[in-house]
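Researcher: Go.
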Amino acid sequence: MRIQRCEVLVFLLLFAGAAWSQAYPTRTVKVVVPFPPGGAPDLVGRTLANRLAERLGQSCVGENRTGAGGNIAAEAVAKAAPDGYTLLATSDGPLVINPSVYKELPFNTLRDFAPISIAASAGLVLMACPSLPAFSLQDVLSLARSRKLTYASSGYGSSQHVAAELLKDSAGIDLTHVPYKGFGAAVGDAMSCNVDLIFGAISTGLPHIRAGKLKPIAVTQPKRHPGLPDTPTFGEAGHRAVVIEAYMGLLAPAGTPRQIVDKLYTEVEAILKEKETVERLTGAGLDLVRSTPDEYAARIKADLEKYAKLAKALAAKAE
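Model: Structure:
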């Protein structure tokens, strides 16, 4: 008799979970982006938010919550109710790089998030300000050995920061890091030559390169990017260690019912196959990436270990 009651209870719980998933969402879903408008994470986050709103038949709004290299937004989502109404659309930096470069974090990446899906990835491009007398990586390295050069990034712990640390280590040079609260804030100073160099996602750097406001030096992908066919990879320029690719994805707070996570994953999968989404993201220089929640979780775990080793080797630590 007791066994029968347990079976009934399990059935009722499963039925309740399925019913909750089918009803979700019944109110506005908030998609939190850790960086300001103008960068690849914002583009991906807002694209997903807009399409989810249409597909789910419920309001879905993007919110830029910046600061501390993405930690403020990540903390807010980690501490939000695990009900699927607060999501995080972020690059990999806050999740897998920040734990190795910040002494303390208000969240635990593995414990506090439920990954949903990776959506896109982007190689980085090193760009020089218009008046800097450098047109190749060799020019940049020669200048760095003769005088102090500055570089801008989207903040401590960003993939841009790590790429510069890899270059410094590979080339045996020194560059002064000038962190900003996102690419949008940094790129204006780079175009005005208030800083000499800037690392940025290829997707967000391309418009400024095409407008002649920044000079492309090298890309961090293993192969040349189709949008920058004349720009060599760092490997081609003699620095194979400088390989890094940022990726953007969607996560929920840990404890969010798996039925809701799976429902959101299914919707993201469908969105990434839509012609309009493909054209919007690839047209901006991004590569589309699809992953299951479990695949996303596995990549986060692997990258946490990778960047922990890298940070230790490069002694990169932020307050």
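Model: The longest strand covers residues 113-128.
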